[in-house]
Amino acid sequence: MQISVTVNGTTHESDVEPRTLLVHYVRENLGLTGTNIGCDTSSCGACTLHLDGEAVKSCTVLAVQADGQRVDTIESLAIDGVLHPMQQAFMENHGLQCGYCTPGMVMASIGLLNENPNPTEQQVRLGLEGNLCRCTGYHNIVKSVLACAKGAHS
Amino acid sequence: MSITEERRAAVIGTPMLRREDPALLTGEAKFTNDIPIPGALYLGVLRSPYAHAKILSVDVSAAMAFPGVVAAYGGADLTALWAAPMPCAWPVTADMKNPPHYPVAVDKACYAGDAVAVVLANDDRVAHDALELIDVRYEALPAVIDLEEALSDRVVIHAGAGTNKAYTWDLKCESHEGAVDEAFAAATHHVKERYIQQRLLPMFMEPRACAAVPQPFGGDMTLYSSTQIPHILKVMTALTLGIPEQQMRVVAPAVGGGFGGKLNVYAEELLCVALSRKLGVPVRWNEERAENAMSTIHGRGQIQDIELAADADGKLTAVRVRLIADMGAYLQLVTPGVPLLGAFLYAGVYDLPVAYDFSCTSVFTTMTPTDAYRGAGRPEATYAIERAMDSLAAKLGIDPLELRKRNFIRKDQYPYTAFSGLTYDSGDHLAAAEKAAELVGYEALRAQQATQNVDAGTKRLGIGVSSYFEMCGLAPSRVLASLNYSAGGWEAATVRILATNKIQVVTGATPHGQGHVTSWSMIVADKLGVAPEDVDVLHSDTAISPLGLDTYGSRSLVVGGVAIAMACDRVIDKARKIAAHQLEAAPEDLDFIDGTFSVKGSPDRATPLAAIAFAAFTAHDLPEGVEPNLEAHVTYDPPNFSWPFGTHICVVEVDTETGHVDILKYVAVDDCGVQINPMIVDGQVHGGVVQGLAQALYEVASYDENGNLRNGSLAEYLVPAASDVPSVTTGHTVTPSPTNLLGVKGIGEAGTIGAAPAVINAVVDALSGLGVTDMMMPASPMTVWNTIKAAQAGSTTGGK
After folding, report:
1. In sequence order, which residues have a C-beta less than 8 Å from that of residue B795 and are 6 or more positions away?
2. Does A142 touch chain B (CB under 8 A)?
């Protein structure tokens, strides 16, 4: 099927199999491998990206469902070598170890703050419950999101 | 600004931000399945749906006819590819049974997930589609999932072995023959408990992936793999496939977690290399999460019977342990050794007379093979002794923390020769325990508990203490030899100063989230007086780092990092000779401070390391007998393990009406000696603690009676989310290790080792007024509720 998707500001006209998942589309068709795959049950959130500005798990979306829409991946965040405030907050608060969940976690965290710019710790924990991390115990991820929300960078 | 003008502050000990992070945060880092490999075929693996079955026939013809499929094979078609069975590097006893294990089963499948056929296709999804067209006929055999039933040999899994018992391994340490029996006969208090270490799934976030890229005419083979152990994998691939080792290269790109689950030699790695050699094209494989749950090793899986003998004051006088350890269907790389890594720790941090009797019998079952999982044997041991100490405290009617204080090895006893003959390097257990008690507000909590846990109360407060010991930094090669491990425990390091005074470090450790690049840069920066960002750390590629023994067992810093420091010293020694030549002084008359050599007492007679580096590069004027360039290579074999320790205290509130456990506070005081980067140390503790409390509260690989894994997905297997876990309050004491140059100890596994008993001790403590004396892991609401009901009915406790 023919689709037209604007990914990280560039519009791509692509021919995809109907069963192609959005995560496979960005990874395999567009070579944007920053978005990771961690499971096959939409449980882990490693593939979280933004679809029309909203954080979604891209393994639950077919590429054809993104037709005519805007997709932003982790690769879109840092501009001219400067990290996005959320990326910077993760770095400054040691919010990542192996880094595999990190792109999804960062995209989910930005989505969380878009909806609730000033969350409590408990709201951050609940807001990120769809994104699993096996390394950090979440302590420093939560700290990163709260630090970013405090507006140190905004 | 030149280095001579800059007085550098020490970098070691500061929370320097990680140099690894920008690439990982932006998606720039390449994990194995991010690497484009033109022309690669995709491997699909068909797995047995039966836990135990004869394979009657495998028909791949329909799969072969599927568009996009290039080849398909059953196990019998591939036997010529294997020079040897899959490797087990730890034959713990001479008579250990090690049934032959091949990447694809031929006659029999021995666990649900055992590979029975493979497909190669030009697309990953085509490969998976084609798997469904392979027709395998099975004759189902009875599953064996209960460890004691397995030992009965009513159903023998491996006919060639003749028994399901893999081995029995003993560690009996007595001051004189009969000392243990005498101690138990004379004991005022005797505790006898059985604990179950449930099977766990490692569930690192990046599923495994590998890709073999051949050079059919050049002769070389490169294997990219999401592995913790590229160096060991290189040797084992060469041996298993009959490839000359010098032609084998293994690369571990960015690796998304491991926790022991990537400390192995897996069927899919061997299949990719062997099939890529056979066909002369690249072959790659990406693990799906459902496959991961079945085909990646599992952790834990033990029945522990522990007995403590104690005198009237509660001082331990003897420990007796009988383990049954679940090997799963086959022995993977270090499967049989895991119980041995815990065998020395069932007396914990306590001063025990030489009266210790440990025996482990390991048994095959028709489940996924077990192997090392974060802590590997040591969390199991710590759980048993720390739970049993709480039982002993209950018998004595004293506070569990007080009982521990009575038994701690005292600071003035260090270095301490243990019952086993091993020497513990350094420790101050009392200080760590007191710090943890202070941080948590122990006395106040006990007072609150006394008023809160009244008979009618449904929200009960529990406080759990766990004082752990870890034996890590694997390991002195001679000790490994005495345990029959087939390899050594050294680590290699190269430090090279380039012409422009930038530093290249090559390490044999293999990071997958631990921050080695950052920590190694910090060590080099302080040693050589350079900025950390001037140091590049090369790793995880056997062509660049040919020697190494990789990352596991909290060994990277204690062995690999110390090797880096030693290599720096050797480079300085060589640079000193050149500097002395330039300054016309004797080498021993030079100071080396902040990257500058100067003559003692004449600081203006000085030359910076940068100048020496360039002089070593041009080699125009070197002293007699000194070779060009500044480079040193060190292979360091540690003289001892490192022995980190600490006390964790967990505070819970248990709802007796729902069985829900709410962790109110978690305090971890860990002592890992000198900390290179306290930010990274805390991160390791946070993650480790959550992995340990996940065992306590959430995780179990649950099998049905037919040997099917019931919860083999992240939708069903409860890896905790952010909302399931508390923040962790960390504290530290610092007792440097006297056995290494940096004074460091491992920290990668400590959190996991300390956590599970702290949590369960807290849960049992909360419910002790209701007659509950034990709690099965995971302490799910259902288990907790059932245990409360059973205790109230006066029957057995613990949910067993």
Report:
1. none
2. yes
Cα–Cα dist A74/A103, whole Å: 6
Q: Answer yes or no: do A101 and A44 share one domain.
A: no
Nearest CA in chain B to A122: B723
Q: Give the pLDDT of residue B617.
A: 98
**Confidence at residue B796, expressed as pLDDT on a 0 to 100 scale:** 52
Q: Which residues in chain A have Cβ-Cβ distances shorter than 8 Å to B33?
A: 33, 37
The confidence score (pLDDT) of residue B354 equals 98
Residue B216: the pLDDT is: 87
The predicted structure's pLDDT at residue B456 = 74
Same domain, A6 and A65: yes
Q: Which of A43, A76, A109 is the last residue of a domain?
A: A76
> For a pLDDT cut of 90, what percent of chain A falls above it?
97
Looking at residue B1, its pLDDT comes to 34
Q: Where are the alpha helices (DSSP H) in B329-428?
A: 338-343, 378-396, 400-407
Domain match, A67 and A93 both: no
Structural domain count of chain A: 2
Q: Residue B800: its pLDDT value, please? A: 46
Beta bridge partners of A15: A2
List, in sequence order, every residue forming a beta bridge with B309; answer none if it has no partner: B190, B318
Q: What mean pLDDT is reported for chain B?
A: 96
Same domain, A37 and A95: no
Question: What pLDDT does residue A154 have?
Answer: 42
CB distance A90 to A144 below 8 Å: yes
**One-letter amino acid identity for B677?**
N
Question: A-chain residues within 8 Å CB-CB of B667?
Answer: none
Q: What dotted CATH number matches B37-141+207-255+262-295?
A: 3.90.1170.50
Which strands sit side by side in the sheet containing B590-593, from one edge to the other?
B590-593, B596-599, B602-608
The CA distance from A122 to the nearest CA of chain B, in Å, is 7
Report the predicted TM-score, pTM, of the whole model to 2 decimal places: 0.97
**Do the beta carbons of residue B262 and residue B374 sit within 8 Å?**
no
CA nearest B439: which of B749, B763, B728? B728
CB-CB under 8 Å, A129 with B205: no
Class of domain B3-28+490-636: alpha beta
* ipTM of model: 0.98
pLDDT at B7: 52
Which of A84, A96, A135, A140 to mutate to probe the B interface, most B CBs <10 Å?
A135
Q: Does residue A144 sit in the same domain as residue A95?
A: yes
Same domain? For A35 and A93 the reply is no
Q: Identify the band that residue A151 occupies on the pLDDT scale cut at 50, 70 and 90.
A: confident
State how far residue A67 is from chain B, nearest Cα, in angstroms: 22
Q: Is there a shared CATH topology between the B37-141+207-255+262-295 domain and the B299-474+640-794 domain?
A: no
Question: Closest Cα to residue B717, out of B384, B296, B304, B109?
Answer: B296
Q: Is the minimum CB–CB distance between A37 and chain B shorter than 8 Å? A: yes
Query: What's the number of CA atoms in the CB half-sphere (13 Å) around residue B795?
Result: 8
Which residues of chain B, if any, have pLDDT below 50? 1-6, 797, 799-800
Expressed as residue numbers, the domain containing A66 is: 2-76
Residues B509-548 as b/e (b if ≥16 CB within 10 A, e otherwise) read bbbbbbbbbbbbbbbbbbbbbbbbebbbbebbbbeebeeb
What tokens were used for B703? Answer: 């099998």
Whether residues A66 and A100 share a domain: the answer is: no
Q: Residue ranges per domain, chain B? A: 3-28+490-636, 37-141+207-255+262-295, 299-474+640-794
Rounded distance, CA B246 to CA B546, Å? Answer: 10
A135 in the same domain as A117: yes
According to the model, what pLDDT value does residue B795 have? Answer: 62
Out of A76, A94, A117, a domain closes at A76
Contacts of B36 in chain A (CB under 8 A): 31
User: What is the reported pLDDT for B2?
Assistant: 40
CATH numeric code, B299-474+640-794: 3.30.365.10
